[in-house]
Specification:
mainly alpha, 2 helices, 0% strand, elongated
Length: 90
């Protein structure tokens, strides 16, 4: 399971980071409020940038770690269950 989570993280890291970076770069001019009248949209851009940053951290680090912890708990339960003795054959 650990190898599968590691492979999944490596596979998805680049697309997640590239998509997030493109969105952040697109929102940067709006967040900086460089043009006249754009200062009304700056808080919206900052909120989106903050939310996207938090979601990237959750996606890249927290979700795989939580999945491993949950799976480890289920795996421990399976290993502690008694194995049924084979029935005698007559």
């Amino acid at each position: 399971m650990r190898e599968a989570v590691s492979l999944g993280c490596r596979t998805r890291l680049r697309p997640v980071l590239m998509t997030s970076q493109a969105t952040l770069m697109g929102l940067l001019p709006m967040a900086l409020a460089l043009e006249a009248g754009s200062e009304t949209y700056a808080p919206l851009a900052l909120a989106i940038i903050g939310g996207l940053t938090v979601s990237v951290v959750l996606t890249v680090f927290i979700v795989p770690a939580a999945y491993l912890l949950i799976y480890r708990g289920k795996e421990a339960e399976k290993s502690h269950q008694p194995v049924a003795a084979p029935s005698p054959s007559h």
